[in-house]
Amino acid sequence: MKTTRPGSTTTTSPESPGQPTRDFTVATFVVSQERVLLLWHRKLQKWLPPGGHVEANELPDNAAIREVREETGLAVELLGERGVPIAVPRQLIRPAGIQLEDIAPGHQHIDLIYFARPADPSSAQAVGNHESEAVGWFTLAEMPQRGVLVEIQLWAERAVQAVRAESSRTSRPSAR
Q1: For residues 30 and 37, is the Cβ–Cβ distance under 8 A?
Q2: 3 state SS of 50
Q3: Do residues 157 and 139 make contact, with C-beta atoms less than 8 angstroms apart?
Q4: Of all helices (H) and strands (E), which one includes residue 67?
Q5: pTM of the full predicted structure?
């Protein structure tokens, strides 16, 4: 591994010169009341979920939470399975997906996809930062007319389903 920008780790293959450099990144689909939080990315000019680079020595779970807070001001709770039910070693939340994206010639992102919901559902007011021109909550039906990429729509649909399933699991009364 080599560092190419402060705090970011890029992987290269020393035995394979000419192979692309790769950064680990996260994307977090936050769902509240059947709506998905997206931001209009200032540089890329498209609707995306909050996300960004995993910093050096940062856990992916923490990066997913941090990026949402930095880009929208929201505190979130990640959803997902953990490996096995033990305390040691610590079990991280398994991403909902992992994809490899070509960013520029010779450079790729290994993108870990997470699903989340606001930590405080009564306070889901999102505010953008310098990286976005707009931030909003969108239903799945609104996304095509907004020009949201099909890839983002598909992940958003999975995120809504995951939050719905988690909500039904945690809202069931326990048997007595």
Answers
A1: yes
A2: coil
A3: no
A4: helix 60-72
A5: 0.87
Cβ within 8 Å of residue 68, ≥6 positions away: 28, 30, 37, 50, 74, 75, 76, 116
CATH number for region 2-171: 3.90.79.10
Residues ≥6 apart with Cβ < 8 Å to 32: 117, 118, 121, 124, 137
| Dist. CA 44–CA 100, nearest whole Å | 17
Q: Which of 124, 114, 12, 116 is nearest to 60 (CA)?
A: 114
Tokens of 5: 């920008």
- Contacts from 15-21 at CB under 8 Å and sequence distance 24+? 20/106, 20/107, 20/108, 21/106, 21/107, 21/108
The tens digit of pLDDT for each residue in 40-89 reads 999 999 999 999 999 999 999 999 999 999 999 999 999 999 999 999 99
From 126, 163, 170, 164, select the one nearest 38 (Cα to Cα).
126
Give residue-wise pLDDT tens across range 132-158: 999 999 999 999 999 999 999 999 999
CB atoms within 10 A of CB 55: 16
Burial (0-12, 13-18, 19+ Cβ within 10 Å), 172? exposed
